[in-house]
Write a structure and sequence with these properties.
- This protein is of the alpha+beta class.
- The protein has 4 domains: 88 residues; 51 residues, SH3 type barrels; 114 residues, 2-Layer Sandwich (Alpha-Beta Plaits); 70 residues.
- It contains 11 helices and 8 strands.
- The strands form 2 sheets. Strands 4-3-2-1-5 form a 5-stranded antiparallel β-sheet. A 3-stranded antiparallel β-sheet has the order 6-8-7, with helices on one face.
- 16% of the residues are buried.
- About 2% of the residues have low confidence.
Length: 352
């Protein structure tokens, strides 16, 4: 009997190590489940911390086993060989992408639904995973970009409100600058841009390069606004009989030659388009952005609930207490509804 009790006591250390391991894993899972609605991209961090906890737990379990030190050393050496082999067999690119994902999330460079440009790639973010980021291009197709590539290249994030749209046009030296600037500003205004301004970017051998800028209120229409600005620049310049000489046009006109301005065509007024091209192109990116907005709203609800709970502690009148409790109940129901929508959309994205 004493031998059995002695044997059980010798396993007290390993037992405590196992209980502590399970406890830390549960605490880690509980913490990240609480943080789920506050921000996205926590999965990789959660798995990394879980891996570290498991590794430390295994080491603690081995060190507390009631066996000879030589055998412990052999077991630890074998474990070290397995871990080293796993790291060696893993591609440096894979590890780089994992580290880049953590870095991108910590910097909060962009979110789902944002319009970004990385070198020649431009599109709206639809999904961020452990190894890559997916963007939806202007042709509605998808491009997968490794996180390491994003971390090692400049990322241009387009503002969602009041972003600047611009285009460049080359015009002749024979047209007064003030007349051109006035026409370009008129074109920008006709394209729906606000506060237009003009830069002269180049004095070439045969032409002057003018760059017209304007502020776009809704960046979701970024691509169609660029196209519309170019169209209005063409229309206004031709209406004012100003020739466009882009990119290089040597003027050797004889007196009886015609001018290079197309005739004006009178068209029936176009019906206003209900949906912009971006609404049809960036379907998945729009859904991803809606999920991010709902997560932000959940965060605001949680903050509001905390404020009401603090206020509830200070109240004394029964009527006011009931009113605050009723408001808390409505907030909780709204939160549950939105949380369910977010989870359904996340499941749908995983299936897709």
């Amino acid at each position: 009997m004493e031998q059995i009790i002695s044997t059980l006591k010798s396993f007290t250390g390993p037992g405590i190590a196992l209980v502590a391991l399970v406890l830390f894993i549960l605490i880690n899972s509980w913490i990240f489940n609480r943080m789920k609605t506050l921000s996205s991209g926590k999965t990789v961090t959660k798995r990394t911390i879980t891996f570290v906890i498991v590794l430390v737990g295994i080491l603690a379990f081995i060190l507390t086993l009631p066996i000879d030190k030589g055998i412990k050393g052999q077991i630890l050496s074998f474990l070290g060989i397995i871990i080293s082999a796993g790291i060696a067999l893993s591609s440096t690119t894979v590890l780089g992408n994992l580290i880049a994902r953590i870095m991108n999330n910590s910097m909060n460079r962009f979110r789902n639904g944002d319009l970004i440009r990385i070198n020649e790639l431009q599109g709206r973010v639809t999904r961020k995973s452990a190894f890559h980021t997916e963007i939806q291009l202007e042709d509605s197709n998808f491009m997968t970009i490794p996180n390491l590539y994003i971390a090692s290249n400049p990322v241009k994030l387009t503002r969602k409100v009041n972003t600047v749209i611009s285009t460049t046009v080359s015009l002749g030296y024979d047209v007064p600058r003030s007349r051109i600037e006035e026409a370009l500003k008129e074109a920008a205004t006709a394209a729906g841009l606000t506060d237009p301004y003009v830069y002269i970017t180049e004095l070439g051998d045969y032409s002057v390069a003018y760059k017209i800028h304007g502020f776009l209120k809704d960046a979701k229409k970024f691509f169609s606004a660029n196209s519309l600005l170019n169209a209005k620049v063409l229309d206004v310049l031709h209406e004012k009989e100003i020739e466009i000489v882009s990119p290089s046009f040597m003027n050797q006109r004889r007196v009886d030659d015609q001018r290079f301005i197309p005739p004006t065509i009178v068209k029936a007024p176009e019906e206003e388009q209900e949906d912009s091209p971006e609404d049809l192109i960036f379907t998945e990116a729009n859904e991803a952005e809606k999920v991010e907005n709902k997560k932000d709203y959940l965060s605001r609800i949680d903050n509001k609930k905390e404020q009401l709970k603090e206020k509830l502690k200070e109240l004394k009148e029964e009527e006011e207490i009931e009113r605050v409790k009723s408001l808390l109940d409505r907030l909780e129901k709204t939160r549950e509804k939105i949380q369910k929508e977010v989870e359904e959309q996340n499941d749908k994205n995983k299936e897709g």
